[in-house]
Amino acid sequence: MRHGCRFLCPLFTSLLCLCASACKNKDLVENELRARDIQYREALEELGKAETRNDSLLREVEALRKGSKFSPEKAALTFGLKRIALGRGTMGLDDDGLPGDEKLQVVVEPRDADDHFIKTPGRLQIIVMEINFQGVKMHLSTHVIEPDQLRQHWKQGLLSTGYHLQLTWKAFPQNEKLRIIARLVLSDGRIYETDKDIKVRLVPGAPRHEFPPPPTPLPEEGPAILPSNHVERRATPVSNWQPVPLTGAVELGRPIPITP
Length: 260
Known about the structure:
Largest sheet: 5 strands, antiparallel
Strand content: 15-25%
Helix content: 25-40%
CATH architecture of the domain at 78-199: Sandwich
């Protein structure tokens, strides 16, 4: 009996090791299949985005060759633009290595109904508002990029795709908090707008500029309506003090020295 137990124990241990190894191999295979499935789905998504961009570019080229105006309904079918957004690359830019951001980088992302990037032509306006510590927004500068110039700034990358613009300050900001407003005007007159708050690093010693005076406060409300039985009370003086006349009073003159 003891010899049988001595023979079965190593066999049982070997079987356990084989089962553990098989389970481990199974987990590795499942993990590998799961990773392959994720890569396959991502590839299909990228392929769908590429096909959508190609179709949009083909429709855009055909429309530009015709050179005709479009109604908003036909333009929506032609270009497929649904909204615009400001990408993560919208921030202050430091190129010279000195303290402070001497430029502003703006990334505008046009998107279609499926939230895919689409290269839509148009006239782009970038409005920069400065926000002080009281929360008051003041206009800092406005940049206008025409359609022919805007086409040259289209970039497609892994992190962001859209129009990448580097704008030099027309006036250096005095507060680090800014609001960036992007407005895209299409050839048919449609306007798409979005905004985003960012923080920039101020340039030390930059020339200061004067903002227009704040608007005048709103007029106060009209007089309160008093009840009909209200009796107006006038303030009475505390005392009837009057100056005393100087008739018969002694007048003090200039002192005269006494001569011996």
